[in-house]
Specification:
This protein has about 200 residues and is of the alpha+beta class. The chain has 6 helices and 8 strands. An 8-stranded mixed beta sheet has the order 1-2-3-4-5-6-8-7. Helix 4 links the parallel strand 5 and strand 6. Helix 1 packs across helix 3. The radius of gyration is 16 Å and the shape is globular.
C-alpha cells in the first residue's frame, strides 16, 4: 500500500459521467475497466511507486490481461479513485476476500500530485465501509514498507491498528525491506466516530 505514488501530470481522459460504484466524502469509487489499463500501467511504472509498493514493472499487455483476469475473480474488487469532476487520482482494491472467514486485504495507490488533501483516507474509509457495511467482513489487513510514512499515516487515520512487523518480507532492488502489518476489525470499525460512506 502506498500513498506517494504515480506520475505527475499523467491524468486519464475520464468519461464525463463515469458510473460510480461507491461514494466517499471527497471522492468516488468506480470499478476498474479494461480501458483503465494504460493509466494504471503508468502509475505502477513510476520508480517511486515501484519502490513504495515493491512491485516489478509489467508491460501494458500484462496489465490489460491482469484487469481482464481480475474482473472474473470473485475474491477481488478494484476501483479507480475519482474526484467529483471524474479526474482519476488513484487505485484502491479489496483483495483476497474470504467470505467464510470474513477476511480481506486493502490496497491503495494514490498519485503524488493529489496527496495531502485527505483523498487517500477518504477512499480508504469508503472501502472499509463497503467491506463492513455491505460485505460480511470481520477483519481487514494492510501491509506497507515501514518507511512509507504517508501510507502509515493514512492507515492510522482510518483506524487501522499496527499489529507488528514482517521482517525482511519484501525483496526490492537487491535489498530486503520490512513490512508494517495493520488490521481493522469489525467492532473497531463500528466504534469509529465518523460518517459512513453512504451518508456522503
Amino acid at each position: 500500500m502506498t500513498e506517494d505514488t504515480g506520475i505527475a501530470g499523467n491524468e486519464h481522459d475520464a468519461e464525463a459521467e463515469r458510473e460510480l460504484s461507491w461514494r466517499a466524502k471527497s471522492v468516488g469509487l468506480a470499478a476498474v475497466d479494461i480501458d483503465d489499463a494504460e493509466l494504471l500501467h503508468g502509475w505502477r511504472s513510476d520508480p517511486v511507486t515501484a519502490y513504495e509498493i515493491g512491485i516489478w514493472p509489467r508491460s501494458l499487455t500484462a496489465m490489460r490481461e491482469r484487469i481482464e483476469r481480475d474482473s472474473d475473480d470473485d475474491d477481488r474488487d478494484d476501483f479507480l479513485i475519482l474526484l467529483p469532476d471524474s479526474t482519476p487520482i488513484g487505485h484502491i482494491a479489496l483483495s483476497g476476500q474470504n467470505i467464510v472467514n470474513g477476511t480481506a486485504q486493502v490496497e491503495l495507490m494514490l498519485a503524488p500530485q493529489h496527496r495531502g488533501h485527505g483523498h487517500g483516507a477518504d477512499a480508504l474509509d469508503a472501502l472499509v465501509d463497503l467491506a463492513f457495511g455491505e460485505l460480511p467482513m470481520h477483519r481487514l489487513t494492510a501491509e506497507t514498507h515501514t518507511d512509507n510514512a504517508p501510507a502509515l499515516a493514512v492507515l492510522a487515520k482510518s483506524g487501522f491498528v499496527h499489529e507488528g512487523i514482517s521482517r525482511a518480507a519484501c525483496l526490492h532492488r537487491g535489498r530486503r525491506h520490512d513490512l508494517a502489518v495493520f488490521s481493522l476489525l469489525r467492532p473497531e470499525w463500528e466504534a469509529l466516530n465518523r460518517p459512513r460512506a453512504w451518508d456522503a
